[in-house]
Amino acid sequence: MAGIPRLVTAISQLLLTCIFLTRAVATFTLPDRCPVFFKSHSQRECDPITPASFLPASVRSASKIRSKYVVDNIVFADFLGALNVTQSEFFAPWLGTWPDAIDWTAAVVGTHISGAARSISEDLVFLDSDKDSVADWRRISSLVDKYFAQIIAYYFGQDALTIRNEAYDDILWVVLGWLEAVQFVNTHSDLHYTPAGLDRSEATLGITDEILGGYTRTPGQPYHGTIWIPAFSHRARIFWNLASHGWDTKLCNGGMVWNPRLQPYKNAITNELFIAASISMYFHFPGDNNESPFSNRSDKFNPNDPDAKVPSEARDARYLKAAIEGYRWLRNSNMTNDHGLIVDGFHISGYLDENSNNTSCDVRDEMVFSYNQGVILTGQRGLFDATGASSYLTDGHRLIQNVIKATGYSLRLDNPVDDSLKIRPGVLPRWHGLGRLGVMEEYCDASGTCSQDGATFKGIFFHHLTAF
Ligand SMILES: *[C@@H]1O[C@H](CO)[C@@H](O)[C@H](O)[C@H]1NC(C)=O
Ligand SMILES: *[C@@H]1O[C@H](CO)[C@@H](O)[C@H](O)[C@H]1NC(C)=O
Ligand SMILES: *[C@@H]1O[C@H](CO)[C@@H](O)[C@H](O)[C@H]1NC(C)=O
Ligand SMILES: *[C@@H]1O[C@H](CO)[C@@H](O)[C@H](O)[C@H]1NC(C)=O
Ligand SMILES: *[C@@H]1O[C@H](CO)[C@@H](O)[C@H](O)[C@H]1NC(C)=O
């Protein structure tokens, strides 16, 4: 899908700006989240031995004497521009999808559009409360609704029946996508439509009151988007149930298999997705009493599905358990290389040999892709929020530091390791494992040979980086 490389390039060129932008986001966290970067009153819910900073100790002291980073508003304008191009050139409203996208990349783009709508909604809160702001508020709120309407269209445009028979990673992108849409609706509703009289929480900063001036807010009227929460959550639940059949203990002592119809491959992405989707189900799935397609008959796609009859509730412990077990397996699977980056996955030697009784994951695919360093971050952050165990945060911080290093950027020097002035024309700067000169790159980027898959990876990394 040609729209994505532009979006991805714009975003990845701003690698470091984005990292500091996430600091701005982190100060404005949702109530159930604990800030990682800064001390704040809501840290009371956090583990007291939580790492106080993302930066390694040696860098932290140096950064105190450096001038403060300023959030660059141009990043936000570029983000709106990229969003507009993606949606005006590649989304087809009459089909409710991005026709050039394959199933999984469409699910990912849908996820990003929901995430983007949530960011714009959060930004609305920071509008000044002068007279012009009501007009501004209506303009931006219409922008939010424009993208949300496209997400609703995609709910029907998504080829949900076909994806049921695809690989487990394809199925899991669907779960993350609809949970992201649920989070957008909840955030937008909480920030701007919470009925007066209830605790409106510190997140609104009291500004929306002045902006709205009673103009758009009718007491007792929640955001219209809330009617879609049951539909989105239902699809997330159906797809999580389908994916959970991919966990198997006969091979490699556990782990998700990538595709049940191919020779077993226990890969990073399927396992990271299962962890991230499970912990996101634990936090964001509100429960579901829609029994379709199970009601009074077996699921015709999956007649023996033991989950069909299990009622599903909010904060269901089985999602937390799945995330914890998935993470334990992944962490013990030796999927991390010498750069501290997560490689692609494991095959089993001699699997097709009738005389072999090998069951262990012993043939490692050493390819490194940016998205394999990303999706797990949502898992680690969620597991920390759910359990309070700071090891999940420490693992996440270490991985992010390793990624930055593998782009050729030194946190200690606060500069690329290689001198850009010494690069000769026509010669590529040195490769550091996941990029060069401090810019994240896939292997396929330099030669311009990325498929739609590779072109989508960096956007996925940055989407999940915002969990920190
Ligand atoms: C959005 O993108 C379309 C197509 O690229 C362009 O024609 C339009 O001017 C853009 N709108 C804004 C507000 O940038
Ligand atoms: C469920 O199936 C049974 C037997 O087939 C039938 O008697 C009952 O009315 C059905 N219930 C619903 C809600 O459709
Ligand atoms: C981990 O994987 C590497 C690369 O395949 C291998 O050299 C090493 O022996 C493995 N370590 C363990 C403990 O299995
Ligand atoms: C079984 O696994 C061992 C250890 O990983 C390996 O040396 C051997 O070649 C495998 N057997 C077959 C038949 O591939
Ligand atoms: C695998 O098979 C060999 C003989 O082919 C046997 O000695 C060994 O105990 C078996 N290992 C397991 C784990 O079953």
List key phrases describing it.
single chain, 468 residues, mainly alpha, 3-stranded antiparallel sheet, two-stranded antiparallel sheet, binds 2-acetamido-2-deoxy-beta-D-glucopyranose
How would you explain this protein's 3D organization?
- The chain has a domain at 398-467.
- It has 15 helices and nine strands.
- The chain has helices at residues 3-12, 15-27, 57-65, 73-90, 103-124, 133-157, 160-163, 168-192, 207-212, 229-244, 268-284, 317-331, 375-387, 391-406, 452-465; strands spanning 266-267, 287-288, 312-313, 343-347, 363-368, 409-410, 415-416, 435-436, 439-440.
- The strands form four sheets. The protein has a three-stranded antiparallel beta sheet with strand order 1-4-5. It has a two-stranded antiparallel ribbon with strand order 2-3.
- Strand 6 and strand 7 (415-416) form a beta hairpin.
- The model is unreliable at 1-48, 197-208 and 213-218 (pLDDT under 50).
- It binds 2-acetamido-2-deoxy-beta-D-glucopyranose (5 copies).
- One 2-acetamido-2-deoxy-beta-D-glucopyranose (NAG) binds next to loops.
Strand content: 5-15%
Overall pLDDT level: 83
Sheet with the most strands: spatial strand order: 1-4-5
Annotation, overall tally of beta strands: 9
Report the principal-axis shape: globular
Distance between the termini: 28 Å
Query: Helicity, in percent?
Result: 40-55%
Q: How would you describe the oligomerization state of the chains in this entry?
A: single chain
What is the N-to-C order of secondary-structure elements (H for helix, E for strand)? HHHHHHHHHHEHEEHEEHHEEEEH
Low-confidence spans: pLDDT under 50, at least 5 residues?
1-48, 197-208, 213-218
Bound molecules: 2-acetamido-2-deoxy-beta-D-glucopyranose
Derived structural class: mainly alpha
Count the DSSP helices: 15
